[in-house]
Amino acid sequence: MNRRRFLTTTSAAAGALMLPRASFAQDGAIKFGSVLDVSGIFDAYGTPMDMAQRLAISEINAAGGLLGRQVEIVSYDTQSDMALYTQYAQQLTRQDQVDVVQGGILSASREAIRQTLRRAETLYFYNVQYEGGVCDRNIFINGVTPAQQAEVLIPWALSRAAGKKVYILAADYNYGQITARWIQKYVTDNGGETVGVDFFPLDVADFGSTIARIQTVAPDLVVAPLVGGAHLSFFRQWAAAGMNTRIPLASTTMGVGNEHKVLTAEEGNGIMVAYNYSQELDTPANNAFKERWTAAYGDTSAIHEIAVSHYMGVQLWAEGVRRAGSLDRMAVIEALENNLSIEGPSGVMTIDPQTHHATLDVHLMEVRDQKMNVVESLSQRPPVDTQAVCNLITNPDDNTQYEIQI
Amino acid sequence: MDLAVVILVEVLYAIASLVLISAGLAVVFGMMKVINLAHGEFMVLGGYTVITAVGLGVNIFVAMLIVAPLVVGLFGLIVERLVFRHLYGRMIDTMLASWGLSLMMIGAFKMIFGNTQTGVTGPIPGLTVGDYQINGYNLFIIVVSLLLLAGMLAVLRGTRAGLIARGTMQRSDMAAAMGHSPDRIYMTTFAVGSALAGLAGAVMAPLVGIVPTAGAGFIAKAFITVIAGGPSLVTGLATASGAFGLVNQAFSFLVSPVIGDVALLVAAVVLLRLMPKGITTRFFRGRL
Asked: Which CATH number, 3.30.200.20, 2.60.120.260, 2.60.40.1180, 3.40.50.2300, labels domain A30-144+280-360+381-401?
């Protein structure tokens, strides 16, 4: 064996190992693709979502699977790195050739993969609350949008404030920027005035100067769509300065990843939020869901809003496949567009055929003693913000995210 | 007038937090030339110690000022015996070893504490200054950092142990010839540096929040401050923290916290360009 022979053989072997594996025959398992951050700074969002999808898929498989076939999860950990979303989305479509992709957490991650999945003609579910406006027939979104969340949160928060001046602190990326504009619109619609808007990159953890500046302006209400672990320090430092008893605080994001459990009770009490799900919802569906979750994972501490949205996304897709009777993308899309509606832990969720968004219940909640207590429930709110600009029935080839201009 | 007081407190707090964050690294890197990339994780360990101790009923001040430094100092001792002892003088290798240590610690935190570990509330309520509310806890941090600087000066200048440590850092062969064991002295110094890192993490925990990946937010500023400080331990730490804290807060108030951070980094670049080996090679030379 000489060196040339050795090198040729080993490189041929290595090359053979790198060839993509042949796809399974049609009678094999259905492939469910997932891209989520289960490590890194967003894993508080991603890990419970991953747990939720595994629970959903195991329930589907235990009931006989879909179309007589078992469902297999092909999941990638994007490690809170947006570049990895693009890479893994391409891998899921080209190499693994999955039948559906569900995932993406931050709006930046959704936009990183939406066009790739559309071009690869792979169905995509984005199961997280966001800033609204995405008009794309290949995607289904069941998270709350500003018209469902901010539109009801702002008047309620203003009713609890001593006046009408509002200060906004938002995360500095597409979600924060667009949501801040929506909040300003709803503040104006309710007779208020926005006295300041500040944006913070996701790793800013020192808000001392900001809190001093807020006090200089003296607003009556602070609205804070802040995102991630570093921004949580704002709520801590706000409470440490004693401001939490002086100026009411509302947020469109705090609690989505169980952040209200990371804050102590003194730091979190009184924060006003509005979401589709709360663990404290006392319905048969939610109680049964919590029991199934406990049976699988031991306790319910990980369940949060977007874990439940993601669970519902999987169930919606499964129902679409059953009604279509096939995995063909257009057949499933048409089945989903046919006013498909299922009930889950957060109530009834119906897909709106015009926008591919969801009509769902929204609850106004207040954080108290590390729980989110429901103050008022609004039933079956349609996604009116996206409906105003997007119509996939008359314009099925639309592929835009409409942004609010003020 | 009230705003001036608020800004002054914020500036002093920024300087104090830089002093606290960098003190442990100043001892470990400045004295022993060990690049400890796990310094942030040592701080996070101090934070988790406080959370656990408070959960077990220990008074929060005792947990922050006594328990956390002891625990992290002990951990530092173990790490030094197992890892760093073999790497003195090999700077790049200490970088690699400490990077691996930091990844291991982050994984351990995630396994043990998870992501939704409740933190601790700051024990000092907000203070009213005229029309403004400020964070009373900031004043506590300022006091702790002043005591820390004073303590470091006192130990290094006033005690025999400090003298031996300084001597060993300058010429370990002479110290060995005089009958002191450099091995033992390095071990103790590393443990003290780790204890200081634990103290910093414990004291900052109620404000900044302890998640497994919180260390990354500290490490950059700590290294910048220590390197810009230069060879003098306490004076370098104080002057570098003072310069950067002032620049950071000035721009934070004038523009925004993001620009404040940018200004700190620009100031570091300028400072290192003008004085590549640190501030105390030019000013305050020869001082401790």
From this structure: 3.40.50.2300
